[in-house]
Amino acid sequence: MTALRKTTTALTSDAAPFAIRAEKASDAAAREALLDACFGDNRHTRTCQRLRDGRAPAEGLSLSAVAQGRLVGTVRLWHVSAGGIPALMLGPLAVETSSRQLGVGAALMDHALAAAKARGHRAVILLGDAPYYGRFGFSSAKTGELSLPGAFARDRLLGLELFEGALDGAWGMIVPTGRSLLKIAARRPRKALRAVPRAA
Question: N or C: which end of the chain has fewer CB within 10 A?
């Protein structure tokens, strides 16, 4: 495994600093707008979206990049089975256009991978550009026998072992294993109905 790079909060003379923090519920609207801007209206039809639909992200692995109180980047990881091997699927990673030269994407990646390893996760898979993700240790070396539920470019299916040998023998379909959003909603306690006074 390639060592994780240390990235600090960016401080540049021509831009405000940014911070990486856990995603908050209040980030939802800004996150969705950012994803629409980065990936277009058809993002919900993409292959990897099938692994996320109806599922909750992995606990503690949804991160936001914030600059001057504004969300400028997002990344989430999701539980999957990579041909029977427990793993995480990373994505989408999105950064606002004006913040892309500040190292926001790299900081989000570094924080996400460090958090995943700290939580005991053993491997991360993603669909993305090898030249970009290769610098974080991702490669196609152990993903050649894996498939996704839909069309995808084979050279874009990349993996990273957080612990050596985690993807040894990975073969078959990548399927979602994260918590169902329907089950989460069903477990939430219902608020007691208030008695509404009737008009006379």
Answer: C
